[in-house]
Design a protein that fits this description.
- By secondary structure, the chain is of the alpha/beta class.
- It has a single domain, classed as Alpha/beta knot (3-Layer(aba) Sandwich), CATH 3.40.1280.
- It is built from five helices and five strands; from the N terminus they run E-H-E-H-E-H-E-H-E-H.
- Strand 3, helix 3 and strand 4 form a beta-alpha-beta unit.
- Helix 1 packs parallel to helix 5 and helix 3 packs across helix 5.
- The longest helix has 20 residues.
- The chain starts with a strand and ends in a 7-residue tail after the last helix.
- Homodimer.
- One of its GO terms (molecular function) is rRNA (pseudouridine-N3-)-methyltransferase activity.
Amino acid sequence: MQLRLIAVGPRQPEWVNTAFCEYSRRFPGECRLELTELALGPRGKGRDPQHALAVESERMIKAIPSHAWVVALDERGTAWTSRELARRLEGWMNSGQDVALLMGGPDGLSAACKAHAREQWSLSALTLPHGLARVVVAEALYRAHSLLKGHPYHRD
């Protein structure tokens, strides 16, 4: 099974890439975590932000693997505990489907991207910088996997 974080946004600081890669390399072969980075839509003075969102949306939808279970990362989604995420991860693994996690750009996710999602996950009531959110997703998924495998990473 493959977990794919599809994220809109520019290059991240090296600490973000290092942390994401650290958690992603910890996953065993049967469950991999990968990142697909998409370029921002055109923004700037005199440009319509809705046009940028539409461009990002089109790119994101094209990047979703066929037959993947889609989860939108959205502040209005449901917050999950580590154990709840572990139960979801177990269900995703048992389904045999790959999972695509969608993380929008500065203007969030379009309605079209949210319509593709079967679930909406809120990482926090706080607004997080995109780089930090990438790391939080990677760590949370690794923690959920470690819970399923009985690995001592998670302490109650």
